Amino acid sequence: MNWDDESAYATPPAGDRLVGTTADGEDQAVEAALRPKDLGEFIGQERVREQLDLVLKAARARGATADHVLLSGAPGLGKTTLSMIIAAEMGAPIRITSGPAIQHAGDLAAILSSLTEGEVLFLDEIHRMSRPAEEMLYMAMEDFRVDVIVGKGPGATAIPLELPPFTLVGATTRAGLLPPPLRDRFGFTGHMEFYAPAELQRVVHRSARLLDVEIDEKGAAEIAGRSRGTPRIANRLLRRVRDYAQVKADGVITQEIAAQALQVYEVDGRGLDRLDRAVLTALLKLFGGGPVGLSTLAVAVGEERETVEEVAEPFLVREGLLARTPRGRVATPAAWSHLGLVPPQQGGGRAGAGGSDQHGLFGE
After folding, report:
1. Where DNA is bound, by residue (predicted)?
2. Which are the catalytic amino acids?
């Protein structure tokens, strides 16, 4: 496959990405089967796991409901899995909902009023909850009580509703968007880090065993190295490599088979997919490495500005391939090296010289 082919500018929809961090229906079904059931099975996140284990053991020893828990971090790192483990460790049922689903205070009141004592309420994307519901949650978390407003205008009446003790587990990918009054009501806050390749290799081995797939050490390492530090992506790549191994080989995943399979699916050695490479290729070939404005770069790859900024850029920045500057996006020397291109001489590129004219053309 020719990675430098101009067709790299045409990108598939962001939701179809093999290395995307959102979970579709198939992913959710597989994740349910692969999820660890207790903290002992959970791989990675050593600090969060150790701290959370102490919190849960202390609560069980007291015979009390566990403190409210806030888990932050990028998608696919195990926040939902940990919420289910919390419920399992406490021997309690779990109720799952999300911030976007709670648009009114009444929506939240209906959920809270139906909770049983000790139940775990998992609220995903908690930062996207509506403000009225958020304010109701303050009292529910602290006093286990909500005021239900009946009627409108001057005749409205607040009816206090007592709630049984429960544990709220909030998950967010953008902890900075949570207001301090809400953040301060969580008894434990854990930040989920990206996984090291060795940890992802253990995840791949465990998932392969559960999926009844034969894989060797180098094959697992090859998949782990392209998984962008995210278990969800590692499991997705494993399933696609499994398909390739069953059709094109003897079903055993080796390093060679994994590399061939992921080349077919356009995931390169650093985990970049077609969208990532399209952004870098446009930045380097069309704009000489930048600086170039985000909107201009998005037009060049045929994507929405938000898609480039929220889907492609975070990983490219984290990998040190792209930098955000006040004047626009700039490719790093590592980006030129990764695509096998030679950076232009200072002043020789169309957008690489960094003069005021370039800023006028390509800046925001």
Report:
1. 305, 324, 329
2. 79-80, 124, 173, 232
